[in-house]
Amino acid sequence: MKELSKLLGFRKEIKVVDATMRDGGLVNDFFFDDKFVQRLYQTNLKAGVDCMEVGYKASREIFDPKKFGKWKFSADEDILAVIGENNTDMKLAVMADVGRCNYRQDIHDKKSSPLDIIRVATYVNTMPAAIDMIEDSKKKGYEVTCNIMAISNAQEGDIKIALEMLCQSPVDVIYIVDSFGSLYPEQIARISDLYMEYAVKYGKQVGIHAHNNQQLAFANTIEAVGDGVNWLDATYSGMGRGAGNCSMENLLGFLRNPKYNIFPVIRFVENDMIPLRQSGVTWGYDLQYLMTGLLNQHPRTAIDFTKAGRTDYVEFYKEIVAQD
Asked: Mind listing the pLDDT tens digit for each residue in 88-117?
């Protein structure tokens, strides 16, 4: 039984992270209009959001800048030109994927950057490289989080080893990531307990990043809140890869902390997110994403199905079952 204080009260330790530009950028190849970014930034400030993720620090040698918007690379000069110095309490973050980022070159010292947090993304089997990135970012003066991706496909013993390695690094926050949207709240409860065990032992914080393949991103996020997880990712209208993420409007509506204000969120959804959908940018729950979630598969096949405009769901199911 969860402590009611963790569900009905509020914890000052909770941090809400807006991942719209990063996870949402996977939907539109990071081609966000500057005015959209500025309005999103102002909305986050008014809503009381604690951290805004402005995109990736991706390698220009791996990803062609002609095929992606500037937020795939999130250069310091672009952040300054569009958002400014950010002399506020809200922190700015980027994500750096192991193997897809030239972090020594592209992540500059904190004193010369508008960024506050580097979010390292890794798989269990690339933990040594992730720890090197974490140590590099900490030496440069940043707060650092680490997203362990695709844990639904990892052995629990391997996750424990990864957590032990990670928690002995200078990382500040370790993230539960339901990459395939395949986990249920009961599983999130057990995983949260495991992560919290290591976090308490080593003085770390725990976060959650959920996907909505089974329409459980919000449910899994608030399950984690009740289990003591403090860093919570969300996106406006749930915008994110494939089925998307926990929606900001759901999350702020649930949290009892008076510092958060849902009204600016509702206004931004009406004025910016709905027109973005109407322009042809597609994301969110659909049957093909449910199927990959049920089978604990990466949603890339469902994304291709969506892009192709297919509606032959039965045939698609037969295809992905054959791959399982």
From this structure: 999 999 999 999 999 999 999 999 999 999
Our CA dihedral for 289, 188, 145, 27, rounded to 10 degrees, sits at: 10
Please report which helix (H) or strand (E) contains residue 145, including its range. strand 143-148
Please list the residues that pair with 117 across neighbouring strands: 93, 143
Q: What is the largest CA-CA distance in the chain?
A: 55
Residue ranges of domains in the chain, CATH in brackets: 4-278 (3.20.20.70), 287-323 (no CATH)
- Nearest in space to 282 (alpha carbons), one of 315, 241, 232, 320: 241
CA Rg value for the chain:
19
Tokens representing 93 are: 């973050």
Q: What DSSP line would sit under 48-69, residue for residue?
A: T-SEEEEEE---TTTS-TTTS-
- In 3D space, the residue among 70, 51, 56 whose CA is nearest the CA of residue 116 turns out to be 51
Q: For position 11, what pLDDT does the model report?
A: 82
- Which regions of the chain are under pLDDT 70? 1-9
Residue 251, Cβ density class (10 Å: 0-12 exposed, 13-18 middle, ≥19 buried): buried
**206, 228 Cβ separation under 8 angstroms:** yes
DSSP output for 72-105: GT--HHHHHHHT----SSSEEEEEEETTS--HHH
- Does this model's pTM top 0.85? My answer is yes
H helical segments located in the chain = 4-8, 20-23, 25-28, 34-47, 76-82, 103-106, 127-139, 156-167, 185-202, 217-226, 248-254, 263-268, 274-278, 287-294, 300-307, 313-323
Given a contact cutoff of 8 angstroms between Cβ atoms, the answer to whether 95 and 56 are in contact is: yes
